[in-house]
Amino acid sequence: xxxxxxxxxxxxxxxxxxxxxxxxxxxxxxxxxxxxxxxxxxxxxxxxxxxxxxxxxxxxxxxxxxxxxxxxxxxxxxxxxxxxxxxxxxxxxxxxxxxxxxxxxxxxxxxxxxxxxxxxxxxxxxxxxxxxxxxxxxxxxxxxxxxxxxxxxxxxxxxxxxxxxxxxxxxxxxxxxxxxxxxxxxxxxxxxxxxxxxxxxxxxxxxxxxxxxxxxxxxxxxxxxxxxxxxxxxxxxxxxxxxxxxxxxxxxxxxxxxxxxxxxxxxxxxxxxxxxxxxxxxxxxxxxxxxxxxxxxxxxxxxxxxxxxxxxxxxxxxxxxx
Length: 322
What we know:
- The protein is of the alpha+beta class.
- It has helices at about 5-15, 40-45, 50-55, 80-85, 105-110, 130-140, 160-170, 235-240, 270-275, 280-290; strands spanning about 25, 70-75, 80, 100-105, 115, 130, 145, 160, 175-180, 180-190, 200-205, 210-220, 225-230, 240-250, 255-260, 260-265, 280, 295-310, 315-320.
- It has ten helices and 19 strands.
- The protein starts with a helix and ends with a strand.
- GO terms for molecular function: ubiquitin protein ligase activity; zinc ion binding.
């Protein structure tokens, strides 16, 4: 394969929407072919100036994302996607002519004949898909980057797990702990001010994995509640290999919760709104706090363990060592 062809094909993939919607960060670069070995099919499928030119034709000039039916065109043949047609108020962004309702059926047919690699090919995904199947796969691809799990702000940083761990520690100043057990004390001077409650996040490293422990206050129905839950920094399938328990108590009483950590693929709000965690009503939280019930003093303890399959019994046995 000629060097120029390889460079051209790499640029054509990198022009996909992955690079137009934000910056991804990764702790290391994956290699996709050894020296002297055969080039992977994911590159050879799009090699050559013809494939590059067709792929550029399918790029919307407004949002620079790949176009999917219906693809619109003006009387002069300039194309754009259906989403941007509304945004430009039915005026062609190239020649300023009125767009009307002309479909570019020829370009839609050309797209139908293309096979392209997943846009996360450089992160390890080896799959190649017909053009119209590619988008659905990419929304669920196991190689897609993770979003920052910090819940106290709208953080748009994405990347792989090692990068996000460093990001949480260095940029969000999140507490990092090693081990599978924890004992945390949460204190708040005015527990009635739910709107100003601090969002607490702690990251635990055990079993070679990272887990995010969330604790926060929010309004549920007519009154505020406190909630603690655990999220796994990885995919949902791997998260099901682990379990955790949480316990809060005082004055000789206690509440316990046991469950499976949710993947950080699920947003913090989705987990919280599904009530998938230890929920403590305010009156109960103040009762556990003791004293004059004017200050919140909660001690939350817990542990994380890995479920191990026993070949003899067919059951899953907990592994509590980290």
